[in-house]
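quick one, 312 residues, struct below
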Amino acid sequence: NLQLDYANIGGIAYDKEGQPYPETTQALAKQADAILLGAVGGPQYDKLDRPLRPERGLLAIRSDLGLFANLRPAILYEELASASTLKPDVVAGLDIMIVRELTGGIYFGQPRGIRVLDNGERQGYNPAVYSESEIERIARVGFETAMKRNKRLCSVDKANVLEVSELWREIVEKVGKDFPEVELSHMYVDNAAMQLVRAPKQFDVIVTSNMFGDILSDEASMITGSIGMLSSASLGKTKLGLYEPSHGSAPDIAGKNIANPIATILSAAMMLRYSLDLDKEADAIEAAVAQVLKENYRTVDIMSEGMTQCTT
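---
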């Protein structure tokens, strides 16, 4: 028994209301128990002033609602081992959870902009900034997530180069003392990117900063066969969460009825589980997805020989 309200965000919000995150959407979002989000962008908006671009709406709603933790599961269904670009024996049984900090770091650091130097040359600048409290709260989500899984947490940073990562590592180790059962490891982000395609099953839970998590979670999604498969949850301190597929708007296939809907369907399952406490219903949706794949139905992005190709 769900009451569904609809609101605009991103490109359509700019088209209809002149802002990527209009006040009408803000009001509905704050009243909701959960939010299921569609993709926000398109190439037609690339020349807008940056504050008006669709992506600013996405950043704004996360910040506005205090959704600081992004959970992105990367699960490879047995039936899709051949759909991955990696060898089946490398990826079969893959089950990773990436915990990404969502409201800090380089995407939100101030001051930011493009300035003209004394010599007339332009310079762009975006500071990567994290406070102790921001690091501590996302680290706790990482450790708590690991406790529910296989009790292994890998914190990804760039502490050999960045002072902000030095602090990140220090705080993560401090929080780790409260979770003695969890095996904590650290990895530089460049190595983590390499290890994800070399031996991805070594990971259980990864916790990392906003930009690193953005990049690594997209990499992990492709290992599972298609970015059209992966759901995500953005959570804060309350039950209110924002749920969205990890993929973007894919304007190259818009209107062709070939997009993979599984990421959105699984995002709805995460919404039922995390925000609405409807575990039985979430289990049913996830089982239905697994059954469809078992019966060899595929959209074109995960299609292989002998399968039945389907529309969205």
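The mean pLDDT is 94.
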